[in-house]
Sequence to fold (640 residues):
Amino acid sequence: MSAISLLEIKDLTVTYSSSDGDIPAVRGVDLRVDPGQTLGVAGESGCGKSTIVASVLRLLPKSATVTGQILLDGENVLEMGWGRLRAARWAEASIIFQGAMHSLNPVQRVGNQIAEPILVHEQTSEQEANARVGELLEQVGLPASRAQNYPHQFSGGQKQRLMIAMALACRPKVILADEPTTALDVMVQAQVLGLMSELVRELGVGLILISHDLSVLSRTCQRVAVMYAGKFVEQGPSDQVFGSPSHPYTEALAGAFPTIGDRAFRYAPRGLAGDPPHPQDLPTGCPFHPRCPVAQPECPTAVVELWPSGPGQSAACVLVRDRDRVSR
Amino acid sequence: MTADATPAVRRSARSIVWTRRRRAFARNWKEYRRNREGLIGLVMLAFFAFLALAGPWLVDPETTAVITAPGRPFEPPSSQFWLGTDEFGRPILALLIEGARVSLMVGLIATVFSIVIGTVVGIMAGHFGGWTDTVLMRVSDWLLVLPFLPLAIVLLVILQSSSWLQISPVTAIAIVVGITSWPATARLIRSQTLAVKSRPYLERARALGAGHWHQMSRHILPNVMPLVLANTTLTVAGAVLAETTLSFIGLGDPLRHSWGTTLDGAFGSGAISIGAWWYLIPPGVAIVLVVLAFTWVGHALETVLNPRLQGR
Fold:
């Protein structure tokens, strides 16, 4: 662990203050991404996934209080000055936003929008920037001539590829993809994911892929973390996490995914009853216990943390802790 | 593409840009032409603009001077004086042509003032929010709640009587109308800015390290521009009316004619009781036509620039 990783988050907490009191959205998250690696973050809506992404570039609204450490190439983002922060944004870590449809300015040509970060960050002539835009477009499989078009002239999948091209514009070391394939049909989704994994391999960037779609994560990521109520409840190599989940929540998530053509699946009840807890009104002990199918009497009071549950895998469940004790 | 081919490429790129602009203009013009009111308005505006620009060549200054007026007082329309004469025997037509210059000029200058201030204030208030927004919007509220006429009269008197500003009464009217009418524009632009600000591409711009100026000039302004343009033409109409109002109550320049001062003259000389309709109606009709023309053009422009209104 001595080498500096591209992005390392240590004990991150994010609390939104509102008129109804404080809302803890992220409650102590640790993660790290190394070059050429893809980390997946899974979880239901509202569990704090997007908040983590926004906190890396400090894009959170003023009402958010952030503690912990976010080390971008060894430098703490939370301690950067305004000028340094602006320079670090996009040049060191870029974001592929959720909903590419709306992340492009409708009144500007896409070429100019892709060139925007280049012109903001680098002392280059417009011509050099335009040449680079052409390269980027080719890189994501679009002809360079389409730089002259407006966003509405592209399909949804093409727009998402434009966003990827834009994310690569300043050759960042880390790319944060916040549900990049939501609202794309499965064929296009497959294309976009294939493109992203290819770029990660070729360019050696670190990618954090956030999604609620487990099939997306399992095919793209080496490691995944499952988030629930602002905390990671399980993490490990993706095939292991989804193949043999140790946390009941991961199991439920994986089980909720339909298996096409499986008759038995259609009749067997799956998924979880109830909703994720409101961050202001978290259950005591393990936050998952009210919905947990295998809850133990001690769960409402137990303090859970990530316990090792397999090679490189860990889960925050008392059953994992106990199993561990028994086996030793 | 080699390095020595770059200049040729650049030139052709520029010519491509121009071809594209011509094509975009042709497309917009085609869309505009579909709007009948817009076309009529444009023709009317061209006509009034011609009058205003060519006024000094069309009208001999002697005919509108009180001493050298060619006719007798209150002559009804005839082949010599198409629209009759006023109480000094000056032809009304000549007064109207001269007045077009002042009325339109005041309308345009006031609009430029109003739109520039309103757009800058609106974008800043919407973009920065918080204290900036509060302060700017309270100032504009303050101007909005004060009734137009008393405020304009007081401002005009202060401007005209100040010895160190040395501005002509006509410019003073334009400034006053501009100062009193920007808050409406600012409100409109602010609300549009708020709508644009919440779009994800602004979050994207922030994420890629764009500063405030970059966000406002590159992303917000182009998106509120259609609204600004459409609002401009509508503001001109209001400004022409405001000039008329101020001139009618006697705050205009006594040495220059505008449609407002002509109306004021008609009122003051008792044209109504005499029954000299030719003194009252033509300036009134001219004002109505100009306001109507600007409104029509404004709405037509709105249709062209707002794709959602197209084809309706």
